[in-house]
Write a structure and sequence with these properties.
The complex is a heterodimer of chains A (287) and B (298). Chain A is mostly helical and 287 residues long. Chain A folds into two domains: 12-67; 75-283, MetI-like (MetI-like fold), CATH 1.10.3720.10. Helices cover 76% and strands 1% of the residues of chain A. Chain A contains 14 helices and one strand, in the order ααααβαααααααααα. By secondary structure, chain B is mostly helical. Classes of the chains: A mainly alpha (287), B mainly alpha (298). The interface between A and B is large, with 108 and 109 residues.
């Protein structure tokens, strides 16, 4: 692409420099476009109301923590964060345990229906919530589980379980079976081999899968919107969603909520990036 | 080359039982939580069910109603527009950046991390933030455009018919391009350097090298990513819900939001029909994706 200049008779050295400068400029523009909305979110959460609406500027005239105070004290956002944490952590633990067993079974053994199970999991992974939210809300109401965090955990397994099973299969496949066989010669049971050899060796994979599953549950809005009506049971995205139903949107507290519910995740992704990238590409796309 | 899974030999029922027991909880939960609701959705779309009343079988009544409902027809056109526009842009941006970041330069790892950030943000945070950016007065976008000397006056980006859909598209691309970027970058990095050297020896220029070496190596990844991304975008709820709720006057209405509104009117048979009507297309995409993604050593 960068050798369009080839015919123009430039030396290879100057072509290299044009390529480098071009790369630099494009990358810088991309970074600016990516970082500006994030900057705007953070900076708005620290602005006084008059700086948001009346005298807007790219750099705030004064910084304030008032928006966080309003969000946490008046709106009780800590309760929502707590609800989100309970739901997401529980879903993650349950999904990763059940998915580890299922993935191990499908990777290590051959039996009737194995291929079918594999396809069921993939289909479940690709079945969108937009199709399932109506029947799920009816079923949850019949089970008297609507409007409860427990019901929410149950329906979140619809995406958490297929996702984690699908990703874990990829990780388990790369554990050499010789290690397991060696362990079993040394007296481990099949279950022992899974728990003591396969899982520890897949630790980075497990971490990545746990982060993906946690994120999926943490971010979910549609099912929560349909199932939860009690304000005390609202998760973080739901609480913010209800802040925008008023006529004048409280942008300061809204962005404070956005920061509180996204920055910990973004730091986690940044730190665990290497595993995450592996998981994303190994899981979604056949290499 | 991964080891082939061990066939359970005849006469080892214990091992077979063990294998089935391990997979059983996942399969039972998925049949109950995904399989049953899936078919239940199809069933109620053929009834006049409302909340609290299972209703009666009315055949294709709901679909006949939808076929002449302007909101529904609008939502289909909009969903298709959104998918094609966003995935086209995500491919262009993702591939362009992946090709650039695949070159060696100082700080490459850091650039990659930063470019992934929109994907690491929760969708609800992204679209709330973009709604703020699009504010006609005091919105970040207007300020930046003014700063660049492009004064369009006061534009209500999300509130006008002509600008609402493009605005939803831009925000959706911002959130979704990193998935394309990372998938394509991983695919590019897996291409052996020898292929490029061989092509260079044969006198191929960069353009020829791209079409002879790069493109064939990443074609499958592009197809799978396009399928996945289309399924997700077509069914995404947060972007339109948080930005415009489908407005102004249905200009950005997509079918998941329409189904949600239907649900709020308590007519769940009709609401389910909105999603079920899109099932034939979804099924094709899902079957294509699964056949490319299904890893089975048999």
């Amino acid at each position: 692409m960068h050798t369009a200049t080839k015919t123009s008779g430039l030396s290879s050295g100057s072509r290299l420099w044009i390529g480098r400068i071009g790369t630099f400029v494009v990358v810088m523009i991309a970074l600016l476009l990516v970082l500006f909305p994030i900057y705007w979110m953070v900076v708005t959460s620290l602005k006084l109301p008059r700086d948001i609406y009346r005298t807007p500027s790219l750099w705030p005239h004064a910084f304030t923590g008032a928006n966080y105070q309003v969000l946490l004290q008046q709106k009780g956002f800590l309760l929502n964060i707590g609800n989100s944490l309970i739901v997401s952590l529980t879903v993650t633990v349950i999904a990763v345990i059940i998915a580890s067993f299922a993935a191990y079974s499908m990777v290590r053994f051959r039996y009737r229906f194995r291929g079918l199970f594999g396809r069921v999991i993939l289909f479940a992974y690709l079945t969108p919530t937009s199709l399932l939210f109506i029947p799920l809300s009816v079923v949850m109401a019949q089970l008297h589980l609507a409007n409860s965090l427990f019901g929410l955990m149950l329906v979140y397994l619809t995406f958490a379980l297929p996702l984690s099973t699908w990703l874990l299969q990829g990780y388990f496949r790369s554990v050499p079976r010789e290690l397991e066989e060696q362990g079993m010669i040394d007296g481990l049971s099949r279950m022992g081999a899974l728990l003591r050899i396969v899982l520890p060796l897949s630790a980075p994979g497990l971490a990545a899968v746990a982060i993906f599953t946690f994120t999926g549950a943490w971010n979910e809005l549609l099912l929560a919107l349909v199932l939860i009506t009690d304000p005390a049971q609202r998760t973080a995205p739901l609480a913010l969603n209800y802040l925008i139903t008023s006529d004048v949107l409280p942008w300061g507290p809204l962005m404070a909520g956005a920061v509180l519910s996204s920055v910990p995740l973004m730091i986690l992704y940044f730190v665990a990036q290497r595993f995450m990238v592996q998981g994303m590409t190994a899981g979604s796309v056949k290499g | 080359m991964p080891a082939r899974p061990k066939s359970i030999p005849r006469g080892s029922p214990r091992l077979a039982t063990f294998a089935y027991l391990l997979v059983l909880p996942a399969v039972v939960l998925l049949l109950g939580l995904v399989g049953y609701p899936f078919f239940y959705a199809i069933y109620i779309s053929f009834t006049d069910a409302v909340v609290g009343n299972p209703g009666h079988w009315i055949g294709f009544g709901n679909f006949a109603y939808l076929a002449q409902n302007p909101s529904f027809l609008n939502s289909i056109v909009n969903t298709v527009t959104l998918v094609i526009a966003t995935d086209g842009l995500k491919l262009l941006i993702g591939l362009g950046l992946a090709l650039l970041v695949n070159r060696k330069f100082v700080g490459r790892g850091l650039v990659r991390s930063f470019l992934m950030l929109p994907w690491a943000m929760p969708a609800f945070v992204v679209f709330l933030t973009w709604r703020l950016l699009y504010l006609p007065i005091g919105g970040g976008l207007s300020l930046v455009l003014q700063g660049l000397g492009l004064n369009f006056g006061i534009i209500d980006w999300l509130g006008q018919r002509q600008t609402a859909m493009p605005s939803v598209i831009v925000a959706t691309v911002w959130r979704g391009f990193p998935f394309w970027f990372i998938s394509l970058l991983a695919a590019l990095q897996a291409i052996p350097n020898e292929l490029y050297e061989a092509a260079r020896v044969d006198g191929a220029n960069a353009w020829q090298r791209f079409w002879a070496v790069t493109f064939p190596s990443i074609r499958t990844v592009i197809i799978v990513t396009a399928l996945l991304s289309s399924i997700w975008t077509a069914n995404s709820f947060e972007n339109v819900w948080l930005l415009t709720q489908g407005g102004p006057s249905d200009a950005t209405m997509v079918f998941p939001v329409l189904a949600f509104f239907g649900m709020q009117t308590q007519r769940i048979g009709e609401a389910a029909a909105v999603s079920v009507a899109t099932l034939p297309v979804l099924a094709i995409l899902v079957i294509l994706a699964t056949s490319l993604m299904h890893r089975d050593e048999d």
